[in-house]
Design brief:
The chain is an all-alpha fold and about 800 residues long. The chain folds into two domains: about 325 residues, no CATH class; about 400 residues, no CATH class. It contains 28 helices and no strands. Helix 10 runs antiparallel to helix 12 and helix 15 packs antiparallel against helix 17. It is globular and about 115 Å long. The chain starts with 11 loop residues before the first helix and ends in a 13-residue tail after the last helix. About 15% of the residues have low confidence.
Length: about 800
């Protein structure tokens, strides 16, 4: 089911409820008939007994009164049943017409696109005009226009003699259908606004090339007008009173005036531009693939509606007792276009032929025909093994750390040398914590992202379309498996390091291995694996590149979503830089194995590095907001930029709070308080679209259970104030002496922020999905390239 078109599907639940209400009334009517039969039997028995007793007493009028009351109730129920049946068939007709209007509008847009696509292929010389003729799409468009004029047949006849359905109801129904059709056309224009800049540039280039061709072929313009008079756009101009596009009648007239040189233009362009650049070829192929995917979605849309309609008709026959299904199928459904999908099948077949001849790729379109994504059961088993192994290693690591800490506290240096236990300095332990925190945060974010994708799949959120990613290359199984594997590798390296620091009896030689070897192995393996994954699936690298070039590139949802993720794992970037400098500086210093590793000197510079990397992700989002405000003209983006400006100031204040504690801490508290209130309010009102008063402080459309939203709001606001733990660390002197404990608490605060981001993702993507549903956006609008 295409969730973005949910409102255009047949309202199966509503029709079933109406049938159930008819069934309830019929049951009541049957019970009343049984009661009347019982009363009649009792009265007949009494009359027979009275005759036997030769009773001459007059019969009381109570029986006649009860009979008249029962007859009135019986008539009332019969009238209600007739009214409910008429309401059911009225709603049935409305749904049939709604589906048919949506189907015809979509197919007309498809005809326009494939007409333009064919012209582009001809202009670039990718297809042979002798094998593919443009005129074969014209009858489809003509049939759709004629069908819209004629309309479809209805179960209930809306005429002057129908007393049950008034003319006012008919006008309201027609008005609602016209509003729905106009809303569809407007949303198509809104859906295409994502590429409006590229489309405008392409149109400008196309118009320039067309003017040049007109000037060269001015003498033959009258002949070319006759040749181009049979195109689809001219047919659209002839039926302009019925079908109008969103571009307006003036633009349509202008396009018709130039229609005469349309074919001649492309014949001339074909001779001059016989070669096509790789970028334009890829754009043509991508547009064709997206168009083909839209056709398959429409085919699935029609199939599901047909199945639902047949089920409704079967149920109505069973409840009402009249066999109307075959009659309605033959007379009503046969008059619609979506039932047999003749035109849609022709478009699918012609698109496959055009794609194969133009790009010589036979199997590329087959990937869109796979509706369900099968996941190998072995992947679930592998996740279970990895998760169990991670828990086991974490337990062993905790036991080993406690044993190591106890041995150091209870023994002196001479005994430690006897036991072959190597004691780490405080700076070395802090360095290990920083290197571990980097990959722990990144792994947790991947696990949360995998859980989010599983939730999206359960509630039918089309996240591959929202993020412009390929579903088969990356799904929730990959994300969860990758995150758990990274945590398992990190904890395993830490456990091996602890074994070398405190080796068991008989393995004292392990004490000669430097402790930093295992963090180095962890860093190298995870970095190499990430690079290999991005070589295969470069979605993350492409999005990060777009984030870095935010002022010069148009901002899409995936761009600012990824930048928001980066703001939550900003410690990862500073810690990863610390890992690199830690090993480089350590190797350069060349100190012996018994002394402190030279890389720990970089801890003195972290108080300067951390604020810089804490401000870089908010700075990217700050620039993205200005670019979005420039492209869309939405002034709310400037208010969003103010939120990230406060975050930048907050990062700077948090970095220098340890230098001037008594001066900067009040400023730090003020900035954090403003940031938490500002960001939390923006999360709920703008990012999630909640707190709408007329929708019970939620929003018009929600995909989750209603009780989840208040809990999510409370959790998000609470976790936004996780920075208050830092205030305790600053004012309690005990933490100044125990820097290791303080650093562990900072790690916990970072984990809280990543957890909050995982919750935020669930509702932010849901809100984007509801926006797509309102705009009927299920495919991307990709402008076709034009010859230079």
């Amino acid at each position: 089911m295409t969730v973005e078109w949910e409102d255009q599907y047949v309202d199966y639940n509503l029709l079933c409820r109406k049938l159930n209400s008819i069934q309830t009334l019929k049951n009541q009517l049957g019970d009343m008939q049984h009661e009347v039969e019982d009363i009649v039997i009792e009265m007949s028995d009494e009359s027979n007994s009275g005759k036997e007793d030769n009773s001459t007493e007059p019969q009381s009028p109570g029986g006649q009164f009860c009979e008249e009351g029962g007859e009135g109730d019986y008539t009332l129920l019969t009238t209600k049943i007739a009214t409910e049946e008429q309401n059911f068939w009225k709603e049935f007709d409305f749904n049939i017409e709604k589906i048919d209007v949506f189907y015809c509008d979509r197919l007309k847009e498809s005809c326009r696109f494939i007409n333009d696509f064919y012209d582009r292929l001809m202009a670039f010389g990718l297809v042979d005009p002798k094998q593919h003729k443009k005129e074969k799409f014209q009858p489809i468009y003509k049939q759709l226009v004629a069908h819209e004029k004629k309309g479809i047949k209805k179960v209930l006849k809306y005429n002057n003699g129908d007393l049950e359905i008034s003319r006012e109801n008919k006008r309201n129904q027609r008005k609602s259908l016209k509003i729905a059709a106009s809303m569809f056309q407007e949303t198509e224009e809104v859906g295409g606004s994502l590429d409006v800049i590229d489309l405008a540039a392409s149109t400008l280039k196309h118009s320039r090339s067309r003017r040049g061709t007109i000037s060269r072929e001015g003498s033959n313009s009258s002949d070319s007008k006759k040749k181009g008079s049979s195109t689809i756009s001219s047919e659209e101009d002839s039926t302009d009173s019925t079908v109008k596009t969103n571009e307006g009648s003036e633009e349509g007239d202008k396009s018709d005036n130039n229609e005469g040189v349309y074919e001649e233009d492309f014949l001339d362009l074909e001779k001059e531009h016989s070669e096509i650049s790789r970028r334009k070829r890829n754009k043509l192929r991508t547009a064709a693939e997206e168009y083909y995917r839209g056709l398959l979605l429409m085919q699935n849309f029609c199939s599901l509606n047909n199945e639902a309609i047949i089920k409704i008709l079967k149920k109505s026959d069973k409840i009402t007792g009249y066999e109307r299904m075959e009659t309605i199928k033959d007379e009503i459904l046969e008059s619609t276009k979506f039932y047999k999908m003749v035109e849609l099948k022709i478009l699918i077949e012609e698109t496959e032929k055009l794609f194969q001849d133009a790009f010589h790729e036979t199997n590329r379109l087959n990937q869109f025909k796979i509706n369900s994504q099968d996941i190998n059961p072995m992947r679930y088993w592998r996740i279970g093994v990895l998760f169990g192994g991670t828990i086991y290693v974490i337990i062993l690591l905790i036991i080993k750390i406690i044993s190591y800490y106890t041995s150091i506290k209870q023994s002196d240096d001479q005994l430690l040398n006897t036991l072959s236990i190597k004691k780490l300095t405080e700076k070395e332990i802090l360095s290990i914590i920083n290197m571990t925190r980097a990959f722990l945060l990144f792994s947790l974010l991947q696990i949360y992202w995998g859980i989010d994708m599983y939730i999206y799949r359960r509630v039918r959120i089309n996240y591959p379309f929202i993020f412009d990613m390929q579903k088969r290359k990356y799904n929730y199984i990959h994300a969860i498996e990758s995150g758990i594997t990274q945590i398992l590798l990190t904890t395993t390296c830490l456990y091996c390091m602890m074994i070398c620091l405190s080796p068991p009896y008989g393995f004292e030689f392990l004490n000669n291995i430097p402790y930093w070897i295992f963090p180095l192995i962890n860093v190298l393996i995870l970095t190499i694996v990430f690079i290999i994954k991005q070589i295969r699936h470069s979605w993350v690298i492409k999005v990060i590149f777009r984030i870095i070039s935010a002022p010069w590139k148009k901002v899409y949802f995936k761009d600012f979503w990824m930048a928001d993720q980066m703001t939550s794992i900003s410690p990862f970037f500073s810690d990863y830089i610390f890992c690199i400098t830690f090993f480089i500086v350590g190797w350069i210093t060349n100190n012996d194995s018994d002394s402190e590793f030279g890389g720990v000197k970089m801890l003195d510079y972290t108080k300067f590095i951390n604020p810089i990397f804490a401000c870089i992700p908010p700075m990217f989002r700050f620039l993205q907001c200005f670019r979005s405000a420039r492209d869309s003209g939405n002034m709310y983006q400037l208010a969003n930029a103010g939120k990230y400006f406060v975050s930048i100031c907050n990062g700077i204040g948090g970095g220098i709070r340890s230098l001037y504690k008594t001066v900067t801490v009040p400023i730090y508290i003020f900035l954090n308080l403003c940031n938490s209130i500002y960001s939390g309010t923006w999360d709920i009102l703008m990012d999630w679209g909640l707190m709408r008063k007329k929708y019970n402080f939620l929003r018009k459309k929600t995909l989750y259970y209603k009780w989840i939203y208040p809990i999510a709001i409370a959790v998000d606001i609470t976790l936004r104030f996780g920075w208050t733990i830092n205030i305790i660390l600053l004012y309690v002197a005990w933490f100044d002496e125990n820097k290791i404990v303080r650093e562990c608490i900072v790690v916990i605060i970072s984990i809280i922020e990543v957890t909050r981001r995982g919750i935020w993702n669930v509702f932010r993507v849901e809100f984007e999905m509801t926006n797509n549903m309102d705009k009927f956006r299920a495919t991307k609008e990709i402008p076709l390239p034009v010859p230079d």
